[in-house]
Amino acid sequence: MAGDGKVLDLSELSQHRSRQDCWLLINGKFCVIANIRKHVYDVTKFLDDHPGGVDVLLSASGKDATDEFEEVGHSSSAKFLLDEFYVGDIDSIHSTKAKDSSTTTYSNQTEQNQANKNSELLLTKFFQYLAPLLVLGLALYVLLLHEN
């Protein structure tokens, strides 16, 4: 793998969540007993080339993106490409506190995103019912004007 193989913690990983600095943790299932270190990748240079788009990577940045990566069913060549972006590993023993704070931050962001989606859905439903009523009202108004 390329890179200098640094040992990182989750708090450091969580600082890399922007278009200019986008890091992902892949295969980051934590096992404190076995002291398993999982790989961190800097995919900043790959953002524009990612077939799924920039937003997919940015939404998974700064945290464990294993589930998102596996759900898509990446090819073996995509998995091989990760080696090019390798930064280091997460030390699971020293990262448990950081993991908890990172999870809390992510949960708060998820709740906020859900609230935004709910308000958009409410607005959409409102206009679905309001638009036909406005058209009906306009049609009745034109009919009344035409009769007079």
From TrEMBL:
Entry annotated with the keyword Cytoplasm: no
Record's GO cellular component terms: membrane
Transmembrane intervals: 126-145
The keyword Iron-sulfur appears for this protein: no
Keywords of the record: Heme, Iron, Membrane, Metal-binding, Transmembrane, Transmembrane helix
Pfam families: Cyt-b5
Single GO term (MF): metal ion binding
Sequence ranges assigned to domain Cytochrome b5 heme-binding in this UniProt record: 5-91
InterPro entries, alphabetized: Cyt_B5-like_heme/steroid-bd, Cyt_B5-like_heme/steroid_sf, Cyt_B5_heme-BS, Cytochrome_b5
PANTHER family, per the entry: CYTOCHROME B5, CYTOCHROME B5 A
Similarity comment: Belongs to the cytochrome b5 family.
Protein name: Cytochrome b5 heme-binding domain-containing protein
